[in-house]
Amino acid sequence: MNYDSNSVAFIVGTAKALIGGKKQIVLEKAPKEAYADKTLVPLSAIVQVFGAKVKYDSDSKQITIRYGKNVGVLTADNPLISINGNIIRQIDYMNPIVDDGVVMVPVRPVVELILGKYVSYSSGAVYISNDPFVQIGQGTAHVLGRVLE
């Protein structure tokens, strides 16, 4: 697989990620499948790779993500997401959560709607990049797992 230099690849259940196909990082918490192939990821590790700024207010449980001209706001245990002050989507089947002090968010709405990146998923492997045409296959999880050992 050819990795975009501005990409993140990881396997659900593994607390490591591959950045740009070269650099490994350790995540605060392993991404996990929450419901029906919906994946929760540790927010700070994923968005900061792309240069986004994250702020979490523990009193209100509000999560603010700033990236380019976009300001996305989510609230832990709440299914709504807003971008630039407009509620644009109800997050299907899961809410952002705080798990042992780590903010975990649904990967697809945050990555696609706020960061403007693309997500490809297959058999527990997740690939986030700038390229809308990249589709990972079933063997990707196996190969990525070996790289992240």
TrEMBL record:
Every Copper amine oxidase-like N-terminal domain range: 24-124
InterPro entries, per database record: Cu_amine_oxidase-like_N (IPR012854), Mao_N_sf (IPR036582)
Protein name (database record): Copper amine oxidase-like N-terminal domain-containing protein
Organism whose genome encodes this protein: Sporomusa acidovorans (strain ATCC 49682 / DSM 3132 / Mol)
Lineage of origin: Bacteria, Bacillati, Bacillota, Negativicutes, Selenomonadales
